[in-house]
Amino acid sequence: MFSRLAHHQCAAAGLGAAAVLSVLLGGNACVQAQSGSRIRQAPSRNHTRQVPPGSQSRQAPAENRSREVQSNLGLEGYCPVCVVEMKKWVRGKPEHRTTYDGKTYYFPSQELKAKFLSDPAKYVPALGGDCTVCFANGKRMAGDIHFASLYDHRLFLFPGEDQRQEFMAHSDKYADVDLALEGNCAVCRATMGQDVAGKPEFAAFYRGMRYLFPSPKERRMFLADPEKFAAEPAGDEGAAKEQPGRGVLVVRGKSGCAGCEHGVAPIGAPDTLGLAVTADDGQVYVVEDAHQLYSDVYERRFDGLPLEVSGTALKSEGKITWIQPRKLKVLK
């Protein structure tokens, strides 16, 4: 079990990701990998990204594998169960794979795959493998397995050493930025109009965000139709309060058509044109589910309405950011 004390001892010593995990193995210099090989300590951010030994040949995808599968491969093919429970980076096999929250994970055996399927939220990396430090500062950026940390039985990935050190120095600030609805049950809010605290042992991930539920019943209902429960209705007085520094953006700008003007579509509804909010600095924010949540504004999006939208950033590419809204209002 990885204690907070061990975590902060590593932070104080400035040790790399491999050394952080080695605390779990009794202080070995390196973390054990598959077949007794070793993973080198993560390089500094100024060096070329290093790959675990042997991955040059085994990690390379087959030529006929689609780019979509490659981009959605979780932990670069390493087994999440082995990392979290055994503190080892063990490479999985394509024949033992499963997909959860848009990511495909490989496992070295069917038994480990079954263990993952019994409780996926226990093993997947925080924020779906994206950086929680970046997310807290309004950006969604993918993490790297060479800059990893285990904290409170959860795996966190970062794009570089700076972000990892920031997390280790202020873990309490960043560990729960992926927690949706402040830990309250999304199903209870939608069906009963009440905020009911969820429990960590009944968790599920959707679009990288972590949802907690008071019992397996609510979790099953959520997983059966996450779109129904994850999006928050406009003007919902029970919605989580905006919390700068916990991944919530507040954006002002003019309305427009995401597809017509910027050539992009909402993530959750790619067959729609989408609502875009263009800020004064030229950044464009695509509002997810706008055609359903804010139908009146959506119909008038070509009018250049002055809007304020707050919500959670889902993804960023260049000047485009996709945002899951909490509130949207037309400014006077």
Task: Explain how this protein is built.
This protein has 332 residues and is α+β, with helices and mostly antiparallel strands. 28% of the residues lie in helices and 25% in strands. It has 15 helices and 13 strands. Strands 9-10-11-13-12 form a five-stranded mixed beta barrel. A two-stranded antiparallel sheet has the order 1-2. Strands 3-4 form a two-stranded antiparallel sheet. The longest helix has 10 residues, at 4-13.
User: Largest sheet, described in full?
Assistant: 5 strands, mixed, barrel
Q: How much helix is in the residues? A: 25-40%
The count of helical stretches stands at 15
Shape: globular
Number of domains: 3
**Rg over C-alpha atoms, rounded to the nearest angstrom:** 21 Å
Task: Give the ordered list of helices and strands.
Answer: HHEEHHHEEHHEEHHHEEHHEHEEHHEE
Strand order of the largest sheet: 9-10-11-13-12
Q: What would you call the structural class?
A: alpha+beta
Amino-to-carboxy terminus distance: 54 Å
Strand percentage:
25-35%
Uncertain residue ranges: 1-70, 232-247
Provide mean pLDDT, rounded.
77
In total, how many beta strands?
13
